[in-house]
Amino acid sequence: MKEVKPEPPPDPSNPSMARPFPAHPEAVRMAEERRLIARAQAGDTGAFRVLVDQHRTRAYTLALRILRSTSDAEEVAQDAFVRVWTALPGFRGESSFSTWMYRIVARRAFDRAQVLRNRRARELEEEHLPERAAPEGGDDDTLQAALLQRLVAGLSAAQRSAVTMFYYEGRSVEQVAELLGMPENTVKTHLLRARAALRAAWTHEVGEAP
Question: What pTM, to 2 d.p., does this model score?
Answer without folding.
Answer: 0.57
